[in-house]
Design brief:
three-stranded antiparallel sheet; 9 helices; Rossmann fold; globular; six-stranded mixed sheet; alpha/beta
């Protein structure tokens, strides 16, 4: 593997009960790059993430650069409302460092400053995971992914359940982290405007690989129509011509 490549995928295929879910996927990711993964529901995007993490059987070849710290933020995590697990206890499953927890929460726009300590019963760290709003819960998952300073972030729809202002906060955060720490980010997104704004490369999946390359080059009307079929117009971006 070339020094600049952190991930190379060759002829990746996944099947469940004899049915192909992914077939012959080929792409690579360079250090500090943002790669977006797009495709309709059921196209195999999350399945590919699980294969990249070694969580499911697959055929083909997945090669990560040695020594990388890889972190993953799932699209959702089911937690019972009555489970007596606080945000603090959840994050401490990953680190015992309160400083790292506070820094991670601050990174996703959650204030844990001294003035909040006077309201302990309302403090985010003392609230149960199952009682958080959808937006709060997703921010906690992103904070979890940022703890311990990973080299690579895999984000599966990182702004699910978050309002538009919160989406901008998290994507701007990813961009800032990538710039300052030279992080490599692989993210699944349904929003093509986000893909154009933040991703250097994009891979289009619909069980097979439809396209791979720079967004402004490969996301043409023909490819989007092939990828989304009748939904192509819905997914078409309103990205201004010439803007990066």
């Amino acid at each position: 593997m070339a020094d600049s490549k952190v991930l190379e995928v060759e002829d990746l295929s996944v099947e469940f009960d004899g049915q192909k879910v992914l077939e012959n996927i080929n792409f690579n990711v360079s250090k500090s790059e943002v790669l977006a993964v797009i495709g309709p529901n059921g196209s195999g995007k999350s399945v590919m993430f699980r294969a990249l993490l070694g969580l499911i059987p697959y055929s083909g070849k997945i090669t990560w650069q040695k020594g990388l710290k890889i972190s993953y933020a799932p699209q959702k995590l089911s937690i019972e409302h009555g489970l007596p697990l606080t945000v603090s206890e959840f994050l401490m499953l990953k680190t015992q460092s309160r400083e790292k927890i506070i820094n991670a929460l601050a990174s996703v726009g959650i204030d844990t400053g001294p003035e909040q300590e006077h309201h302990l019963e309302h403090h985010i760290l003392n609230r149960r995971m199952g009682l958080l709003s959808g937006g709060e819960f997703q921010r906690i998952l992103v904070a979890w992914a940022l703890i311990n300073d990973p080299d690579v972030l895999l984000f599966d729809e990182p702004t699910t359940g978050i309002d538009i202002g919160g989406e901008e906060t998290i994507y701007n955060l990813l961009h800032e982290l990538q710039d300052k720490r030279k992080l490599t980010v692989v993210l699944i997104s349904h929003d093509l405007n986000i893909v154009y704004k933040y991703a250097k490369t994009v891979i289009c999946l619909n069980r097979q690989q439809v396209c791979f390359g720079e967004p402004h080059t490969v996301l043409n009307p023909e490819e989007l129509s092939s990828l989304y079929g009748g939904e192509a117009k819905f997914y078409h971006h309103n990205h201004p011509s010439g803007e990066n």
